[in-house]
Prior knowledge:
The protein is mainly α. Helices cover 48% and strands 6% of the residues. The chain has one domain.
Amino acid sequence: MKRTGLKRKPGSPFSSFASRATALRRSKIESRMRKPTVSEGSKYLTACRGEPCYLRVPGVCRLNPDDETVVPCHSNLLEHGKGKGIKADNRFTFPGCGACHFWLDQSTVPTKEQRRAATLSALARWEPVRAQKMELTEMIA
Ligand SMILES: [Zn+2]
């Protein structure tokens, strides 16, 4: 006789129970994540080390894969928690070279929309890479 043991039918009462349990667990994890500790936050900064620039502003970025001016850049978008004198959450950081960072943070060249677009696309490019990198780091640790 074949054992079908662990297979769960989609219509079974267990499947809805399981997804509820997962949802509960998830909301707990999320509320824990809302206030990252210093060490949790710094993991995001550490992950930026040794990376190329993710801002890659056309005409600004030197696109050097070994650029030594790359630092973790904080998002300046309000939706990422940037407010009166406080930096955004470390989750909203991405590696950026000196030239792009200056363009984004200090120069008056980009419009608000350009800054926003550059930040969002840098984060979109960086987040999956960072997730993988952090997963690997945790496996080694
Ligand atoms: Zn750059």
